[in-house]
Amino acid sequence: MKTSSPNRKKVLYVITKATYGGAQKYVHDLATNLSEQEFEPIVAYGTHGKLADDLSSAGIQVRQLPSLGRDIAIISDMKSFFEILKTVRELKPDMIHLNSSKAAAFGALAARIAGVPKIIFTVHGWPFKENRNILARTAIYAISWFTALMSSAIIVVSKSDERIGKRMPGVGGKIHHIQLGAELPTFLSREEAADTLAIQTKDVRIVTIAELTLNKGIRFALETIKKLEERGLPALYVVIGDGESRAELEHTAKILGISERVRFVGFLSDAARYLKAFDLFLLPSIKEGAPYVLIEAGAASLPIVMTTAANIEIVEHFPNVRVVSAGDPDALADAIVETLGDKTETELFPEKFAFSVEGMLEKTAALYF
Fold this sequence. Notes:
The protein has 369 residues and is α/β, with parallel strands linked by helices. The chain has 2 domains: 9-182 and 356-366, Glycogen Phosphorylase B (Rossmann fold, 3-Layer(aba) Sandwich); 190-342, Glycogen Phosphorylase B (Rossmann fold), CATH 3.40.50.2000. Helix content is 38%, strand content 19%. It has helices at residues 22-33, 50-57, 74-91, 101-114, 134-150, 159-166, 190-196, 218-230, 246-256, 292-299, 329-342, 357-366, and strands at residues 9-17, 39-47, 61-64, 95-99, 118-123, 153-156, 175-177, 204-209, 235-240, 262-266, 280-283, 304-307, 321-324. The strands form 2 sheets. A 7-stranded parallel sheet has the order 3-2-1-4-5-6-7, with helices on both faces. The protein has a 6-stranded parallel sheet with strand order 10-9-8-11-12-13, with helices on both faces. Helix 4 packs parallel to helix 5, helix 8 (218-230) packs parallel to helix 9 and helix 8 crosses helix 11 (329-342). The longest helix is centred in the first third of the chain and has 18 residues, at 74-91.
């Protein structure tokens, strides 16, 4: 563990789940790349997972908050708030950087009570964009607005979320759009990646990398694979990732009669390195921010079919991208057919990579001063 110094600014990151996904990668990249001479990062989290292990291995101090979970539960939520407040008072950070909705709401309130000088809130997709009833969305909007109001600065990772944030009363002037940055993996060759994943088919190979939750829209992707089959375009759909919806999705594939065309391979460390095994990347999400997987898929020269739920600015950087409405399997199927028809052997990766970790880090660290 890295030793503390009175000359360094102490940054406390708070996140609900220390598993692995876009928000977790974001926290990892910031915490492990901050200047050791200027900052002392500490990460507090609820659910233990890969992020916590990776941070510990990198010498970053971590703190688990056992009561902090994603699902709403009044008793544990009250406990998690007081756990965060106790942690903030004990660590006395110079700033707190909040990630994920629940951790952000509790963390912002605790930081205000404890007198933390700076409160940074990163929005990884506004949660009220989720497909919920009007009462739930209104309540979630109110909580998001209150969290943003209590924050010193709000970071958004997509232009669409920036537009939404700037319309929120009393919040617009705090909004900062900072594009995600990524350190690209060393991609395996098509043959090596396919061999590692035991992919032998000559059919079209489609891949999604995602945590298996409702927001990722995998159910619509399964319906899309069924529609492609009905159109005479047989495809193998490989889903890399795990999560709470896996059993339900596997059952859905069985009900649709496409189990032989779908493979759930589970979580793979450094999953992006296998991307070149595939012909197309599919992002069927119904709620997103600016997912790292789009950057990685573009860098792997894969054509991309995605929904408007995600950061559509990606189309400015990668030429072979089609964007359709979320929750529409017919539109997804049309886009896949059109995209594959346009595919060429030319290099699709832009000459200048526009998503550097250094750029993201520099703009984020500037908000810490």
